[in-house]
Write a structure and sequence with these properties.
14 helices, 424 residues, 55% helix, disordered N terminus
Length: 424
């Protein structure tokens, strides 16, 4: 496809002398947009994935500046382009959409992406290595598994509530309430349709609970192994309330601390810095933006919330001088809690954790309690090994499996009491 309009730039190369190509990535086809050096026409055509890979891997061809919109496969194609001597540039989608002047289609998207290649000082997305991508994928799968467990527990709790039973918090309590409900139903109406349906639901729930728990334990074991074997993670775990999951997430998300000028830049990358707007010399601070590194921010928020609760618990109990929370941090967090809501105070702690994480990895030295006002390290022992960071997770899994085992035992006893011909 050729556009009749001439290119907006007389020089088709960027300031570094590279031929600029806009790439609109998709699952089955890829759209390329560039400017003809001779005529100035905008060339816009669709190629297959195989043709695009052959173009990138072509030996002896000109080096290109491949401008791509950030998407699921942009890191993959960017890595291939970088290995073959090209300069990949990944542009955030919101910049590309702001450049569009008409209806949305693949050809117009590719042209907008190509135009972004000439914008000076464009904020691009840094290309991630394969190891970092796999580490983040592992943590995202872990998050999906935990969400599946929570969703299943809520479903069981809702069923129990509909049948007049109220369960406590947590998956073990939900399974326990379901077990009690099954026993009461079987005792009051043995062999009834309701009893049969409830037994079928309970059997399916037990199987899902065991499968999800097994998957969670396998992923946690792998995360622990990564945290113990990686020196960067061991450094990060010297920071208070930063455990194996948070350490692996920060290390994979940051990759090279030298790519950030200071800790505030990394905090902004993690969406821990509020936006601002201004006009006429007046600046207004807005809220935390719900975009960018939301995944890493959720993990850091859990760590910061643990720190906040620890300080508040210490203040409530009047326990001081035990080495759990230094006085300086306790005063700072108590001051935050006194003048702002809980989540805003926790967001400030997240910002501080981001800055300290950057400083620790940038310097290559462990967290120094004397230079900061955070809780003392608790995830690593003197031998450099991770302490019982997974003990609580194992304890929770043990309680859940015990509750599931009790329910399965009842279902097996019930199944043995029903004649073979009536067993559904």
């Amino acid at each position: 496809m050729k556009s009749a309009s001439a290119g907006a730039h007389s020089d088709v190369s960027d300031p570094k002398g590279l031929f600029v190509v806009g790439v609109d990535l998709a699952s089955r086809s890829i759209r390329l947009c560039s400017e003809d050096p001779g005529t100035g026409e905008i060339l816009n055509r669709e190629v297959s994935r195989e043709e695009f890979e052959g173009l990138i891997r072509k030996r002896g061809g000109p080096s290109m500046r491949l401008v791509m919109e950030a998407c699921g496969s942009s890191n993959y194609w960017g890595s291939i382009a970088e290995m073959n001597g090209h300069a990949p540039v990944i542009v955030p989608a919101r910049f590309v959409h702001g450049c569009s002047s008409g209806s949305k289609d693949d050809a117009r998207d590719a042209e907008c992406i190509w135009q972004m290649g000439y914008v000076p000082k464009i904020k691009s997305v840094r290309l991630r290595g394969a190891e970092s991508r796999m580490a983040l994928a592992l943590l995202r799968f872990r998050e999906a598994v935990l969400k599946g467990m929570g969703g299943l527990a809520n479903r069981i709790r809702a069923l129990s509530y509909e049948l007049g039973s109220v369960s406590g918090k947590g998956a073990p309590a939900a399974v326990g309430a379901l077990d009690k409900l099954c026993e009461e139903t079987e005792r009051e109406a043995p062999g009834s349709v309701m009893s049969e349906n409830l037994a079928a639901v309970s059997s399916a729930a037990c199987g899902l609970m065991k499968a999800i728990t097994k998957a969670e334990q396998a992923i946690d074991e792998r995360v622990m192994s990564l945290a113990e074997s990686d020196g960067r993670c061991r450094l990060l775990m010297t920071i208070p309330c930063v455990g194996p999951v948070a350490a692996v997430a920060i290390s994979a998300f940051m990759e090279d601390p030298a790519s950030y000028r200071n800790g505030r830049q990394f905090a902004a990358r993690c969406c821990a810095v509020p936006l601002h707007t201004g006009s006429g010399g007046k600046i207004t601070i807005l809220g935390i933006p719900p975009r960018g590194g939301m995944f890493i921010r959720r993990i850091l928020f859990e760590a910061a919330m643990g720190m906040y609760n620890r300080v508040m618990r210490q203040q409530k109990d009047g326990r001081e001088g035990k080495g759990e929370v230094p006085k300086a941090l306790s005063e700072w967090i108590v001051s935050l809690a006194g003048r702002m809501p809980v989540k805003k105070a926790v967001s400030a702690i997240v910002n501080k954790l981001c800055r300290i994480s950057w400083a620790v990895l940038r310097s290559g030295r462990p967290y120094d309690q004397e230079k900061s006002s955070l809780v003392p390290p608790s995830a690593m022992g003197p031998d450099g090994k991770v302490r019982n960071a997974r003990a609580m997770r194992k304890s929770a899994a043990r309680k859940l499996l015990q509750a599931v085992g009790k329910l399965e035992s009842f279902l097996e006893r019930r199944k043995g009491q029903i004649p073979a011909g009536d067993d559904t």
